[in-house]
């Protein structure tokens, strides 16, 4: 199958294309400039793969949690291809995607994104079940969730920051994190192939990003109403 994958959940944008004969991935880590580079980056990677948007069989992306701007840009780009050429879009949890490359390590996994104000978007699994579902957590809630875990692998774009906090709280425990972030778009393609094999449904027309937290505009509006 021909699949295009995007991870725009954080400022570090990851893209990949898989065809029958090629697998190409690239990463842009240039700060808050997603709107400038996303569409040209899609055009460039498809050109390198020698494939057009109309020849894609499926597209996929991290659907959230993450950056409001990045998530909107990613889903807008792939929905445009869907509208033009009928290419289905699969949305996958950002936190699930960040954990996927390490799922065979047989260790408890904590994937995270810094949500600021001493909070993290996080997902915790012991390898068999979720101990924390995807949500917006205070750091104390994460501390409580991992208190009985001796060795924990922390992953995601802000793994180092969360690891530092965990080590400070529990210096006797072992907290591991990857030295280099994984290529998340590659993980997205593997997850999507599994979803297609299981005949999972792609996103509906009305499906959008999963934010987990109200935007600043929403918070201000709610404050004004109340």
Q: What does this entry show, briefly?
A:
This protein has 226 residues and is of the alpha/beta class. It has seven helices and ten strands. It has helices at residues 34-48, 68-85, 94-99, 139-145, 159-169, 184-197, 216-225; strands at residues 3-7, 12-18, 23-29, 58-64, 89-93, 109-116, 119-125, 130-138, 151-155, 174-176.
Count of DSSP E strands?
Answer: 10
Average of per-residue pLDDT values:
93
Proportion of helical residues: 25-40%
Class from helix and strand fractions: alpha/beta
Strand numbers in spatial order across the main sheet: 3-2-1-4-5
Biggest sheet descriptor: 5 strands, mixed
Work out the strand percent: 25-35%
Could you tell me how far the N terminus lies from the C terminus, measured between alpha carbons in angstroms? Answer: 51 Å
Number of separate helices? 7
List SSEs in N-to-C order: EEEHEHEHEEEHEHEHH
As a whole number of angstroms, the C-alpha radius of gyration is 18 Å
Q: Indicate the low-confidence ranges by residue numbers.
A: none
Overall geometric form: globular
């Amino acid at each position: 199958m021909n699949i295009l994958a995007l991870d725009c959940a954080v400022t570090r944008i990851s893209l990949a294309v898989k065809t029958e004969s090629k697998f190409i991935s690239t990463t842009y880590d240039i700060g808050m400039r997603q709107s400038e580079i996303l569409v040209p980056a899609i055009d460039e990677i498809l050109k390198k793969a020698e494939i057009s948007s109309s020849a894609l069989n499926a597209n996929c992306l991290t659907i959230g949690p993450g950056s409001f701007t990045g998530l909107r840009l990613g889903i807008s780009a792939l929905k445009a291809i869907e509208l033009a050429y009928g290419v289905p879009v699969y949305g996958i949890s950002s936190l699930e995607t960040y954990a996927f490359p390490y799922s065979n390590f047989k260790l408890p996994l904590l994937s995270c994104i810094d949500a600021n104000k001493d909070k993290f978007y996080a997902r915790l699994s012991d390898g068999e079940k979720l101990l924390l579902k995807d949500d917006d957590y205070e750091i104390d809630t994460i501390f409580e969730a991992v208190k009985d875990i001796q060795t924990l692998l922390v992953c995601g774009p802000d793994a180092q920051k969360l690891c530092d906090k965990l080590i400070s709280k529990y210096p006797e425990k072992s907290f591991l994190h990857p030295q280099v972030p994984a290529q998340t778009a590659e993980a997205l393609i593997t997850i999507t192939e599994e979803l297609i094999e299981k005949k999972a449904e792609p996103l509906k027309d009305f499906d959008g990003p999963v934010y987990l937290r109200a935007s600043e505009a929403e918070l201000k509006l709610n404050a004004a109403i109340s």
